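Postdoc handover notes: sequence design on the structure in folder B. Input tokens:
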């Protein structure tokens, strides 16, 4: 019995504890960080792991463990806020296109298809190169890059749902458009949206990390895992562990979110083949 439960929920049991630890680190970073992540100590530059600095110190003597913990707050919040923004735009557009139909549907979905085909990292690099470097701009840019995916998924599922018998019955009984959309169609596609959110968060984290690594995302002294790896890459031959620690934590975060996303996919939408 227990073995069957573990087998069915293995990915959740692996991913959830990792993600929970990272979320707790983000929420309580000011308490958990052993030292001030912004404190400069020129006497301890590029030091390896020690009792005082378990992850070592960076090029200006800041404690890397403390910055990794604080980086959880930035990396997770940027990805979460960007995906929330993308969901807020994409889902209503997908519903609107599916329900209205006709020329509006064709025009909107062709525009969405163009956005979906654009290489995300390239567009993000170009956009961030000409915009103010701030967390708000970063969230806005990532959100705009991912809302077409939510619009496309929502449109596809809503178009399938609106042909169901219970929707046709509601229309025959005189139900209005808003009621059909918000009381009949949307509740029956929440599971698909949740799964899409879980996977998109991991993509958004990687995109933020890539931009920050290139110096176009989170700017110093504010730490994020990608920004730390990018800043410390120049010192990889002096102390490789300096880059390893934030990179491993980023990998664990993406791994955990994908494991949970896979589990949600199997539990909520078992008929969908990945």
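Designed sequence:
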């Amino acid at each position: 019995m227990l073995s069957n439960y573990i087998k069915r929920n293995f990915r959740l049991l692996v991913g959830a504890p990792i993600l929970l630890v990272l979320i707790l680190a983000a929420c309580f970073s000011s308490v958990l960080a052993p030292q001030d992540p912004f404190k400069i100590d020129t006497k301890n530059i590029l030091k390896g792991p020690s009792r005082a600095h378990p992850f070592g110190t960076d090029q200006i003597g800041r404690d890397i463990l403390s910055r990794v913990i604080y980086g959880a707050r930035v990396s997770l919040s940027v990805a979460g806020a960007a995906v929330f923004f993308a969901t807020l735009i994409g889902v209503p557009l997908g519903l609107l296109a599916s329900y209205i139909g006709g020329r509006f549907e064709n025009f909107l979905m062709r525009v969405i298809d163009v956005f979906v085909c654009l290489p995300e990292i390239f567009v993000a690099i170009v956009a961030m190169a000409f915009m103010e470097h701030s967390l708000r701009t970063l969230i806005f840019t990532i959100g705009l890059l991912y809302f077409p995916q939510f619009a496309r998924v929502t449109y596809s599922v809503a178009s399938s749902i609106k042909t169901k018998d219970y929707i046709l019955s509601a229309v025959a009984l005189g139900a209005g458009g808003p009621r059909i959309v918000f009381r009949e169609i949307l509740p029956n596609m929440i599971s698909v949206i949740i799964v899409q959110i879980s996977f998109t968060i991991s993509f958004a984290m990687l995109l933020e990390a890539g931009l920050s690594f290139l110096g176009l995302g989170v700017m110093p002294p504010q730490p994020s895992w990608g920004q730390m790896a990018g800043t410390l890459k120049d010192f990889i031959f002096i102390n490789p562990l300096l880059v390893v620690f934030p990179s491993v934590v980023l990998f664990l975060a993406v791994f955990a979110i994908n494991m949970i996303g896979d589990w949600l996919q199997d539990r909520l939408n078992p008929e969908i083949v990945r």
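Context for whoever picks this up: The radius of gyration is 22 Å. Don't rerun without checking with the PI first.
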